[in-house]
Specification:
With 253 residues, this protein is mostly helical. Helices cover 75% and strands 0% of the residues.
Length: 253
C-alpha cells in the first residue's frame, strides 16, 4: 500500500508534470522542494522515533516513516532544468530503494514476529542473546538491516548510490546531506535492534529468557521465508546492472 502511493506520485511527476512545466515551472520546483523537505523531515523524525523504541516491532514500524523520506528526495532532481539523463538515474534509485524496503521490511517483520511468538515479548532487553538459540532469525534481521542502512552489495546501497550521484550531477548537496543523515540514523537504530541479540557476556545479568510464547519448535517456513527475502536484498544488489535494467522497463525515458 505504501508503494502504491509512490507509484501514483511518480506517474504524476513523470507523465503529467512535463506537460504543465512550461506554464508553471517555478511552481513545480517549489512544490518538489516542499515535498523533499517533508521527506527529509520524515528521515530525521522517523529515525529519531525508531531510536527511542525499546521494542522491536515499534522500532521496525517507525523506521518505515524514515525510509519513505528517501523517495521524496528525488523530486527536486527530476524537476531540475539541467537534469537531462540524470533524472532516469534518480528515479531508478528511488524505485530500487522502494523495492529494497519492501523486501527488507517484510523480512524484518516476519523475523521479529517469530521471535515475539517464541519468547512472548519483543522487548529488546528481554531478547538479549537470542542469536545463540535462533541464529537464522537473527541472521535474517542482520541482512535486512544491511540493505535498509544501504551498505555495499545490497539493493539499498544501489538505490542510495544512484540517488546521491544524481544529486551531485545537478549540484544539489542538500539532498546528499539528507541521504547521509538518514543513513547514519538508520545504522544507529538498526544496530540498537540487532546488536543486543548478538551479545551475551558471561556476566550478563539479562540473558535471553525462556520461551513463553505459543511456538515450541520454530517451523522451517518461519525461518526460511524471511531469510529468502533478506537474501534477495543482497542478491539484487550484487546483480546491480540487471536489476537496474529490470526496474527501467516501462519507464518514460
Amino acid at each position: 500500500m505504501i508503494k502504491a502511493a509512490l507509484f501514483v506520485l511518480l506517474r504524476c511527476w513523470l507523465w503529467i508534470a512535463p506537460e504543465v512545466a512550461a506554464d508553471g515551472e517555478a511552481a513545480l520546483r517549489v512544490l518538489s522542494w516542499g515535498l523533499a523537505v517533508l521527506g527529509a523531515a520524515a528521515l530525521l523524525v522517523g529515525g529519531a522515533a525508531a531510536l527511542r523504541q525499546t521494542h522491536l516491532k515499534p522500532l521496525v514500524a517507525c523506521s518505515t516513516v524514515a525510509q519513505v523520506g528517501y523517495w521524496m528526495l528525488l523530486l527536486p532532481i527530476i524537476t531540475d532544468p539541467e537534469a537531462g539523463d540524470v533524472a532516469a538515474g534518480a528515479v531508478g534509485g528511488a524505485v530500487a530503494l522502494a523495492l529494497s524496503h519492501a523486501l527488507a521490511k517484510a523480512s524484518l517483520f516476519l523475523a521479529v514476529g517469530t521471535l515475539k511468538e517464541i519468547h512472548g515479548t519483543d522487548e529488546i532487553s528481554a531478547l538479549r542473546g537470542a542469536g545463540r538459540d535462533h541464529p537464522v532469525l537473527v541472521l535474517t534481521m542482520g541482512l535486512a538491516a544491511l540493505s535498509l542502512i544501504g551498505l555495499p552489495i545490497s539493493l539499498g546501497f544501489l538505490g542510495k548510490w544512484q540517488l546521491a550521484t544524481s544529486a551531485v550531477a545537478v549540484a544539489q548537496p542538500v539532498i546528499v546531506l539528507a541521504l547521509v543523515a538518514g543513513t547514519l540514523l538508520s545504522a544507529a537504530y538498526l544496530l540498537k535492534a540487532v546488536g543486543p541479540l548478538l551479545v551475551e557476556a558471561e556476566d550478563d545479568e539479562q540473558p535471553v529468557g525462556p520461551a513463553r510464547g505459543g511456538l515450541g519448535t520454530v517451523p522451517h517456513t518461519a525461518q526460511g521465508v524471511p531469510l529468502a527475502l533478506s537474501l534477495l536484498t543482497v542478491g539484487t544488489g550484487l546483480l546491480g546492472a540487471w536489476t537496474d535494467a529490470v526496474l527501467g522497463v516501462g519507464a518514460p525515458w
